[in-house]
Amino acid sequence: MASVVSTNPNVLGGTPVFTGTRVPVNSLFDYLKRGRNIDYFLEQFPTVQRSQVEHLLDEVKIQALACQSQS
């Protein structure tokens, strides 16, 4: 996930952002939680690439399934 998410103390105080942007990763989850879709998110944040969002969601899914299998 390091390729699509980065942290830097000089960028938003170290908040995880989509690499190459100043868009916090958490903003994607906030949009999805409020019922917005990925297309809408990408329209609002054109510096984020669809491939970054898809890769992040794939990684989160893999981690969630790994946690489930350990339970």
Structure at a glance:
It holds the Pfam family DUF433. Helices cover 52% and strands 6% of the residues.
Describe the structure.
- InterPro entries: DUF433, Homeodomain-like_sf, WH-like_DNA-bd_sf.
- Pfam families: DUF433.
- It comes from Bythopirellula goksoeyrii.
- This is DUF433 domain-containing protein.
- This protein is mainly alpha-helical and 71 residues long.
- It has one domain: Orthogonal Bundle (Arc Repressor Mutant, subunit A), CATH 1.10.10.
- The chain is built from three helices and two strands.
- The chain has a two-stranded antiparallel ribbon with strand order 1-2.
- It is globular, with a radius of gyration of 13 Å.
- The chain starts with a strand and ends with a helix.
- The mean pLDDT is 93.
Series of H and E elements: EEHHH
Radius of gyration: 13 Å
CATH top level?
Mainly Alpha
Reported for the largest beta sheet, the result is: 2 strands, antiparallel
Number of domains: 1
Q: Would you tell me which CATH topology applies? A: Arc Repressor Mutant, subunit A
Shape: globular
Strand content: 5-15%
Protein name: DUF433 domain-containing protein
InterPro entries: DUF433, Homeodomain-like_sf, WH-like_DNA-bd_sf
Pfam families: DUF433
